[in-house]
Amino acid sequence: MMSQEKNDELTRVGAGTPGGDMLRQYWMPAALTEELEQDRPVVPVNLLGEKLALFRNENDELVLMDRHCPHRGADMCFGRVEEGGIRCPFHGWKFDESGQCTEQPGEPNGSTMHKNIKINSYPVKEANGIIFAYLGSGEPPAFPAFDCFNAPESHVFSFKGLWECNWLQALEVGIDPAHASFLHRFLQDEDPKDSYGKQFRDTAADSEMPMTKVLREFPQPEIKVEDTDYGMRIIALRDLNNGSSHVRLTNQVFPCAITIPMSNEMTITQWHVPIDDENCYWFSMFTSFGQPVDKETMRAQRIKEHTLPEYAPIRNKRNDYGYNREEQETLTYTGMGLDINVHDQWACESMGPIQDRTNEHLGTTDKAIIQHRRKLRKAMAIVAEGGDRSQLPLHVDAEKAKEIKGPIAVDAIAPSEQWEEAWKERDAQRRAACEWDAKL
Ligand code: FES
Ligand SMILES: [Fe+2]
């Protein structure tokens, strides 16, 4: 259990809060590239409690700036994108890419008022289908040499979805290896051949055993957590009672992402990005070590579960996530369909907009959650005290960033005493066979 004050510290995301200031030291996914693929490439972005407008200018460069005009607050998402910036349609004030007001056509000739008006404009960077933004002060950290960034565009599919809850509870479900045996339990195994693009539906590596069976029949994983240069490696070992063990490697990527195996050929790197204190987006990069990603199939699977332009899930708290009592008895543990994303969404949203951690009771399986909260607090203290930002996890320069690779996310089954060699071998094999340079 924690005090209300400590829970607020961990969960609030606005500028000037300890958590918000720490999160601003990192690149955050702001939008999908596909959102700007329209006649008028301007979209609203709500990020870390800030209301912003993202657009492509005349030269096709991305610009992210305050959404509300500093004159009388009109919505710049309806602005006129012109050479040299964007113009508010209310009274014609114009702003350049840096956010500087350059024209106020209704003011008297010779007025210099515009010189003193500047709105926030933030650096953005595009990588494999996601547009990242840096809302912090000082130099942003470099992008690490993660697989999801190294892989060519053909081997990465990106998507996002809205969850109506605080970002931290959304992240914490991803660093909790025990829940998969319950929340995502399938009471029957389907044919793993139909598993493309779905999680936990392949066979466990090097075996004929469907992952659904491993998770269902062995619900007490031994969990090991290791500190790494990007965050944490989380190892879940399931002793299969026949001399062999299932090992599953997942990762926490500081501060708000995870990298996990999806199938034998794909991993998922997923950021849980605060929109504000009570809402967040997951942004995922599905990265393939095998075939190029079938983006059409992957997108169709996900689009049919969401409404645009918000990427809001069709199953949500207003329709009980499609809960069905009969299904809960016969098919799934939750009764909420076969899409495991919906299960996670229910688990996180049902806690309330911000989980009341003054009432929680953490168990042995919450090891990684406990360690991650410690790391968050440590990072928040460094930022609050104006300390050396190179002490923050993953806050690295370009040289150092080249060395931060992977993270390895893999499933394997091996003789119990060889589990450590087994995941290394399994990962090395697929990297060696990979079309793009996936060497570690
Ligand atoms: S509100 Fe934007 S120019 Fe007046
Ligand atoms: Fe889950």
Précis, in short:
The chain has 11 helices and 23 strands. With 440 residues, the protein is of the alpha+beta class.
Labels describing this entry:
single chain; 440 residues; alpha+beta; Rieske Iron-sulfur Protein; 2 domains; eight-stranded antiparallel β-sheet; four-stranded antiparallel β-sheet; 23 strands; 21% helix; 27% strand; binds FE2/S2 (inorganic) cluster; binds fe (ii) ion
Structure description:
With 440 residues, the chain is of the alpha+beta class. The chain folds into two domains: 27-127, 3-layer Sandwich (Rieske Iron-sulfur Protein), CATH 2.102.10.10; 141-432, no CATH class. Helix content is 21%, strand content 27%. It is built from eleven helices and 23 strands. The protein has helices at residues 4-11, 18-23, 147-150, 167-173, 211-217, 295-303, 325-330, 340-349, 367-384, 398-401, 419-432, and strands at 28-32, 42-47, 50-56, 62-66, 80-82, 85-87, 94-95, 101-103, 121-122, 124-127, 130-133, 145-146, 156-163, 222-227, 231-239, 244-253, 257-261, 266-276, 279-288, 306-307, 312-313, 405-406, 410-415. It is globular and about 85 Å long. FE2/S2 (inorganic) cluster binds next to loops. The site of FE2/S2 (inorganic) cluster (FES) has 8 residues, from loops.
